C-alpha cells in the first residue's frame, strides 16, 4: 500500500482537476488519477472538455465566425476584403496548439499546488481504497480519507451508425476534420450537432442535420427554439425533424445514411457523418461491487444535493451524476465537495447554472422557461427586448436575437433569462449573478448600465417586464 492521502480524485477533467487544486489549496494532501495519455505515453489532463470538447470546438467556431464575418459582413462596414477563405489545416493546427497550451497549464498548476498525479485508470474499491492501473498494466493501491469520483462521460454510439475512421465520426473525430467536406451529415440537433454544423456550413459545406425528435431544442424556451431554428436554417443548415437514422453504408469515400421521417424511408449521401446523439456517464468498472457506491440503470451514480454517494467519504461530481453535463457545473461541484471535506459550509445553487450553445448568434439561458413556469401554475410577467433596437449591437453588426426575462408576477423575483445574441454567453453571467442574489426585475431596472453597450438589452428587458422599456414600444396593458 502506498502513502495515504486526504483526498484522491479520479479523473482530471474540469470537475476533477479543479477539485484537486482546491483540495491542495485548502491544505489537504491530494492526488489525482488520470488514465488519458498522448501518443508518447505522457499524461493528458483536462478531460473531454479541454481536449476534444468545449475548448477546441470554440476555437474552430471563433475562426469560422471571423471568416464568415469577413466574407459577408465587412462590405457593409466599408471594409474591402477580397478572396477571404479558410485554411482548414491551419485552423486545426491552431486549435491543437491552444489545447496543448492549456493542458500544459494544468500540469503546471498541479505542480504549483502540490497535487500528486497518479497516471493510470482509477477504480474505487472497498474501504476507500483506490486501485490505479497504469498504461503498462502495473497495479498500485492507494488509500484516502475521502475520494471524489469525476470520471466524466463519453459519446453515445448508435448501432445504425458505427464509427468508421475518417468517415463516420464522434465529437472527437469531428474536431480533426482538416478539409471542408462538400456534404456533411449530422445525427442529432443538440449542442454538439449544431456547433459542428455551424462550423462547416460557414466554410461552405452542405450540412444536413437529422434529429429524431419532432421538436427543435425542446430543452430551451420556445421563443429561443423558434428563433434559433429560423436563424440556423437561414445560415444554410438543413434541419430535418422527426428523422430517425436506421442504417449507414460506406461506399468508398461516401456514406449513405438511411433514415425514416413522416414521409417514410429516406436516404442521404454525405462525405462525412458526425454522430452527436448525446453522452453517457463513464462509470463502467469505476467502482467495485463492494465499494458501497450505487448506480442507476443508466450508469449514473446516486448522490444527494451535496454530491455525497451512499458510501461515507465518497463523493461523485460532473457528468457521472444527475443534472446537465456541463463543465462549469462539474467544476463548481468539485469545489463544493472539497470545501465540505475541509469542514466548510458549501452548497451549489442548481437553479442558477447557465446553459450555452455557441452557434452564432449564441443561445444562452438560466433558470426556468416560460413553458415550465406556466405548467407549474406560476403567475409570471415577461419582458423582451430585441438586439435590433440596440445601438451598440447595430455598430457591431450583430442585431439578431433578443433578451427575454421572466419574473414572478407577485414577488417580482427573476425566475429565468433567455438570450439569443452575438455575445449571449457573456451577457448570461449578468442574469446568473442577479438570480444568485435573488434579484427582482425592479433591481435590474434601477441598475445603471453603461451606454452604449450590448448589456443595455438586459436592462431594457427588465424594464419591459413591467411595460417600462424605453427604446421599444411596450405592449398594451390589459
UniProtKB/TrEMBL annotation:
Cofactor note: Binds 1 FAD per subunit.
NCBIfam families in the cross-refs: lipoamide_DH (TIGR01350)
FAD/NAD(P)-binding domain segment(s): 5-334
Pfam families per record: Pyr_redox_2, Pyr_redox_dim
UniProt catalytic activity: N(6)-[(R)-dihydrolipoyl]-L-lysyl-[protein] + NAD(+) = N(6)-[(R)-lipoyl]-L-lysyl-[protein] + NADH + H(+)
Other remarks in the entry: The active site is a redox-active disulfide bond.
Gene: lpd
Protein name, entry field: Dihydrolipoyl dehydrogenase
Key word tRNA processing present: no
GO molecular function: dihydrolipoyl dehydrogenase (NADH) activity; flavin adenine dinucleotide binding
Sequence positions that bind NAD(+): 188-195, 211, 278
Enzyme superclass (EC): oxidoreductase
Main location: cytoplasm
The entry's keywords: Cytoplasm, Disulfide bond, FAD, Flavoprotein, NAD, Nucleotide-binding, Oxidoreductase, Redox-active center
Superkingdom in the source lineage: Bacteria
Cofactor(s) named in the record: FAD
Catalytic residue positions: 451
Residues engaged in binding FAD: 58, 122, 319, 325-328
Residue ranges annotated for the Pyridine nucleotide-disulphide oxidoreductase dimerisation domain, each copy included: 353-462
Amino acid at each position: 500500500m502506498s502513502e495515504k492521502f486526504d483526498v484522491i480524485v479520479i479523473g482530471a477533467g474540469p470537475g476533477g482537476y479543479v477539485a484537486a487544486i482546491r483540495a491542495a489549496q485548502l491544505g489537504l494532501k491530494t492526488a489525482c488519477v488520470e488514465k488519458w495519455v498522448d501518443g508518447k505515453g505522457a499524461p493528458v489532463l483536462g478531460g473531454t472538455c479541454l481536449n476534444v470538447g468545449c475548448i477546441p470546438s470554440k476555437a474552430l467556431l471563433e475562426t469560422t465566425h471571423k471568416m464568415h464575418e469577413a466574407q459577408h459582413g465587412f462590405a457593409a462596414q466599408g471594409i474591402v476584403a477580397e478572396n477571404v477563405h479558410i485554411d482548414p489545416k491551419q485552423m486545426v493546427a491552431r486549435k491543437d496548439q491552444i489545447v496543448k497550451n492549456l493542458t500544459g497549464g494544468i500540469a503546471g498548476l498541479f505542480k504549483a499546488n502540490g497535487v500528486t498525479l497518479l497516471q493510470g485508470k482509477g477504480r474505487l474499491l472497498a474501504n476507500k481504497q483506490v486501485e490505479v492501473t497504469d498504461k503498462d498494466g502495473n497495479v498500485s493501491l492507494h488509500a484516502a480519507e475521502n475520494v471524489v469520483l469525476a470520471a466524466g462521460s463519453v459519446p453515445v454510439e448508435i448501432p445504425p451508425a458505427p464509427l468508421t475512421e475518417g468517415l463516420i465520426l464522434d465529437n472527437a473525430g469531428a474536431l480533426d476534420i482538416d478539409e471542408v467536406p462538400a456534404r456533411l451529415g449530422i445525427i442529432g440537433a443538440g449542442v454538439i450537432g449544431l456547433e459542428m454544423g455551424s462550423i462547416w456550413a460557414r466554410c461552405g459545406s452542405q450540412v444536413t442535420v437529422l434529429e429524431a425528435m419532432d421538436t427543435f431544442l425542446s430543452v430551451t424556451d420556445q421563443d429561443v427554439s423558434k428563433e434559433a431554428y429560423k436563424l440556423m436554417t437561414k445560415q444554410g443548415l438543413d434541419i430535418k425533424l422527426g428523422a430517425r437514422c436506421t442504417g449507414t453504408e460506406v461506399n468508398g469515400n461516401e456514406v449513405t445514411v438511411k433514415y425514416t421521417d413522416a414521409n417514410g424511408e429516406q436516404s442521404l449521401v454525405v462525405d462525412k457523418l458526425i454522430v452527436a446523439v448525446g453522452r453517457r456517464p463513464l462509470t463502467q468498472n469505476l467502482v467495485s461491487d463492494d465499494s458501497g457506491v450505487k448506480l442507476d440503470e443508466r450508469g449514473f451514480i446516486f448522490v444527494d444535493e451535496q454530491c455525497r454517494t451512499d458510501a461515507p467519504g465518497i463523493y461523485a461530481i460532473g457528468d457521472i451524476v444527475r443534472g446537465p453535463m456541463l463543465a462549469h457545473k462539474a467544476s463548481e461541484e468539485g469545489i463544493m465537495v472539497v470545501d465540505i471535506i475541509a469542514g466548510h459550509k458549501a452548497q451549489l445553487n442548481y437553479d442558477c447554472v447557465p446553459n450555452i450553445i455557441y452557434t452564432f448568434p449564441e443561445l444562452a439561458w438560466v433558470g426556468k422557461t416560460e413553458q415550465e413556469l406556466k405548467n407549474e401554475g406560476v403567475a409570471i410577467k415577461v419582458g423582451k427586448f430585441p438586439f435590433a433596437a440596440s445601438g451598440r449591437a447595430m455598430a457591431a453588426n450583430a442585431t439578431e436575437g433578443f433578451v427575454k426575462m421572466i419574473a414572478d408576477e407577485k414577488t417580482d423575483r427573476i425566475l429565468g433569462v433567455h438570450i439569443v445574441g452575438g455575445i449571449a454567453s457573456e451577457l448570461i453571467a449578468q442574469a446568473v449573478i442577479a438570480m444568485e442574489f435573488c434579484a427582482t426585475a425592479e433591481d435590474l431596472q434601477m441598475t445603471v448600465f453603461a451606454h452604449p453597450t450590448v448589456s443595455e438589452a438586459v436592462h431594457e428587458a427588465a424594464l419591459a417586464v413591467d411595460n417600462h422599456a424605453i427604446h421599444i414600444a411596450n405592449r398594451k396593458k390589459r
